[in-house]
Specification:
With about 270 residues, this protein is an alpha+beta fold. Helix content is about 35%, strand content about 20%. It has two domains: about 30 residues; about 200 residues, Aminopeptidase, CATH 3.40.630. The chain is built from six helices and ten strands. Helix 1 runs antiparallel to helix 2 and helix 3 crosses helix 4.
Length: about 270
């Protein structure tokens, strides 16, 4: 587990040490009584140093701060009896087990392995897994459900946001538009667009899905995601389910994802 605070502190410590060395060098070289502009020379070198330092270090800091520390949050689900359950954010290392859970959907609605790689790489902090303790191997808990999401600038889920850019592996997190429609994730999006809420079939009908969605909304509430709304599309028979956990139905959706009829659901974070 990597601490973002610890990483940042290390960078700052290195900066302080280099700053002291630079200060000493300047005064050693230009310490004569008739040498003009020592302070000006020093400040100019400090400015150059700071520019180079942050130019090479800010990308690394930004990359670290993009991902939340993977901590486990215990969750009590009465229907599971005494089985220990917890949630944690997901990463690209979880792709295979996410694919297995996704088989709970019909084939047309499933997220592909490649699309999981894209979404978990773009927004791991917005993807949450529900795990239970594995009695045969305590070190390898079992993923029984997940919520997968990306960022979107829209207040409704669009078919474009359900997709991924064709050349996503070579992109640098920049949003992609095709015919003025966003494709996939938008890193500055004000909405969190949920594209998958899946529970293994053997755990369905036990209020596990409700517990997971509530845990996900709590997860968003604890973080600093800069989003104002959560959006998703649901089949008509799931509208009441999402309303029971705080979502509001906005009527029939314009989305035709997987050839289905959907309803827009929204949840205000602010």
């Amino acid at each position: 587990m990597m601490s973002i605070t610890g990483h940042s502190s290390g960078v700052v410590d290195r900066a302080d040490r280099l700053f002291e060395v630079l200060h000493g060098v300047v005064h050693a070289e230009y310490s004569g009584p008739n040498t003009p502009g020592i302070d000006s020379i020093f400040l100019a070198l400090v400015g150059l140093f700071l520019y180079l330092f942050f130019y090479y270090n800010l990308p690394a800091l930004a990359n670290q701060s993009k991902h939340l520390i993977m901590t486990q949050t215990n969750i009590h689900i009465p229907s599971l009896g005494g089985t220990n359950a917890f949630t944690r954010t997901l990463s690209k290392e979880d792709v295979k087990i996410c694919v297995a859970v996704e088989e709970a959907f019909t084939e047309a609605e499933r997220c592909s392995e490649e699309k999981f790689c894209y979404r978990l790489g773009a927004c791991p902090e917005l993807c949450l897994g529900l795990f239970v303790e594995n009695e045969q191997d305590a070190a390898s808990p079992t993923l029984i459900g997940h919520v997968i999401a990306v960022r979107s600038p829209y207040t409704r889920v669009t078919d474009g946001s359900m997709e991924m850019p064709e050349n996503w592996r070579s992109l640098d997190d920049e949003p992609v538009f095709v015919n003025d429609e966003l494709i996939g994730n938008h890193k500055y999006g004000d909405s969190i667009a949920i594209h998958s809420v899946a529970i293994l079939p053997e755990y369905q009908g036990k209020k596990v899905g409700r517990a997971l969605v509530r845990a996900y909304l709590e997860h968003l509430g604890r973080g600093c995601f800069g989003a104002s709304k959560v959006v998703l599309i649901a089949h008509d028979y799931l509208v009441n389910f999402y309303e029971s956990v705080g979502f509001k139905s906005q009527g029939k959706s314009q989305s035709t994802f997987a050839g289905g009829v959907w309803f827009d659901m929204t949840f205000d974070l602010e």
